[in-house]
Specification:
With about 425 residues, this protein is an alpha+beta fold. The protein has helices at about 1-20, 20-60, 95-100, 135-140, 155-160, 165-175, 225-230, 265-275, 290-330, 335-340, 345-385, 390-415, 420-425, and strands at about 65-70, 85-90, 105-120, 125-135, 145-150, 160-165, 185, 190-200, 220-225, 235-240, 240-245, 250-255, 285. Helix 2 crosses helix 11 (about 345-385). The protein is elongated.
């Protein structure tokens, strides 16, 4: 019986609203735009947040990244002659040795030198970054081997003149040639290519092509020992009519902990070691886990702000619902009086008008959810901005639209129910 009664009330609400099609339609538009805005804004915010978090996750939540930082020239130590200067700064071998002894729960330590050289194969050349590092660098930096192999422990031990090159560099220098086994010049030295690598998260760009036609890596990876034996720790930069000699033992050190729970404790130990070894702060410390946690807190705040801004349009739609229902109550005063005279209770009158507001808000909410799916996909298609639709955004948007309908519909419904039946019957 109750189901039949509810169905009858809903049909009556739809019939009553149909008498004011234009007014009801404009009111529903407010709810539609509000729901669309909430879903679209939350999806844009979620997309941006996930993209940043994925980039941080790729750096490893168990890692601590250290990098040498060149300070302003007046703070650098070293000698200076007429047109040349010596800049000594950054991470040292002593730092790395202390980390390996002192940092608790350390799983691996990955030191690297990073310099730029012209690399050449036949008549093709390109300036790119040379990374002199260890064999386990590929795992730490999420590199996958597309062809051949990465530098090996034996290469490191023997100081072998071998290298693994990035996929994009392989395409640029070698084109249709298979780079594996070929010799290429790195600066003035010759290295044999033993492998082609790319980021693990790269996706295939071409079909029916060699495996190195994937990814945007341009670096050249060589054994750290090989580079130090051939080039030492000093290198020269030219510019502005003068040459600058720089001595940097290590440009980067990545510490990997066994467990994520020990990362923050280890980071504090690292800071203390660096403060003790360096008279000035010629280094940077980056802890991806800390950045991830900060990003998660920022994402929550960002979504709240975006959702609140979008919810304003829903409130405007709610005001429209209240406006139309107050006008409806005024126009149907005599109808209310007749229903009360025939035995309708106050709660029946409240239910009648409240169901009408719910019909407006629910129908607007459902249409708005459809628009909330279309708008983010259109944004992604036209601008390549990443958007992510989540069930929570739909629940929030639709829930708020229903809540707005109830809140802004209660006052008109209660006002109708509290009318004096006799006075209502006298109304013209």
């Amino acid at each position: 019986m109750k189901i039949v009664r509810i169905e009858r009330v809903v049909r009556m609400a739809v019939k009553n609203l149909a008498q004011y099609k234009m007014r009801a339609g404009l009111t529903v538009l407010g709810i539609i735009f509000g729901v669309c805005s909430v879903v679209a804004m939350l999806s844009v915010g979620e997309g941006a947040s996930r993209e940043i978090q994925e980039q941080l996750q790729q750096q490893g939540s168990r890692n601590i990244w250290l990098a040498s930082e060149k300070l302003p020239e007046e703070q650098l130590s070293g000698g200076q002659t007429n047109s040349s200067r010596i800049a000594i700064y950054g991470l040292t071998y002593d730092d790395a040795n202390r980390f390996s002894r002192i940092v608790p729960n350390l799983e691996s330590l990955t030191p690297s030198k990073k310099v730029r050289f012209d690399v050449r194969f036949q008549d093709r050349s390109k300036e790119t970054e040379i990374v002199a590092t260890t064999p386990w660098c590929a795992e730490i930096k999420n590199l996958r081997v597309l062809a051949g192999r990465f530098i090996s422990p034996r290469d490191m031990e023997e100081g072998a003149p071998v290298c693994a090159i990035g996929a994009r560099l392989a395409r640029t220098l070698f084109a249709a040639y298979d780079p594996i086994g070929k010799n290429m010049k790195v600066g003035n030295d010759v290295y044999r290519v033993v492998g082609v690598v790319a980021d693990k998260f790269s996706t295939p760009e071409f079909e029916n092509k060699p495996p190195w036609f994937v990814g945007d890596e341009e670096q050249v990876y060589i054994p750290l020992k090989t580079y130090v034996q051939r080039n030492g720790d000093m290198f020269v930069r030219f510019g502005g009519g003068a040459s600058t000699m720089e001595k940097v033992e290590l440009h980067e050190v990545i510490l990997t902990l066994r467990e994520q729970d020990h990362v923050m404790q280890a980071a504090e130990v690292v800071r203390n070691v660096l403060r003790g070894n360096h008279s000035r702060e010629d280094y940077q410390i980056k802890v991806p886990l800390q950045l991830i946690r900060q990003m998660q807190a920022t994402r929550r705040l960002f979504n709240i702000v975006l959702g609140s801004i979008a919810a304003i349009s829903l409130i405007v739609g709610g005001i429209g619902i209240m406006n139309i229902m107050l006008a409806t109550v005024s126009e149907r005063t005599r109808e209310i009086g007749i229903r009360r005279a025939l035995g309708a209770r106050r709660r029946d009158i409240v239910a009648q008008f409240l169901v009408e507001t719910l019909v407006l808000s629910i129908s607007g909410g459902l249409i708005g959810l459809l628009g909330g799916v279309i708008i983010p996909k259109t944004i992604t298609f036209l601008t390549d901005v990443r958007t992510v639709l989540t069930p929570l955004s739909f629940i929030i948007a639709f829930g708020v639209s229903v809540a707005v309908g109830i809140v802004f519909g209660l006052y008109p419904a209660r006002r109708a129910a509290l009318m004096d039946p006799i006075e209502a019957l006298r109304h013209e």
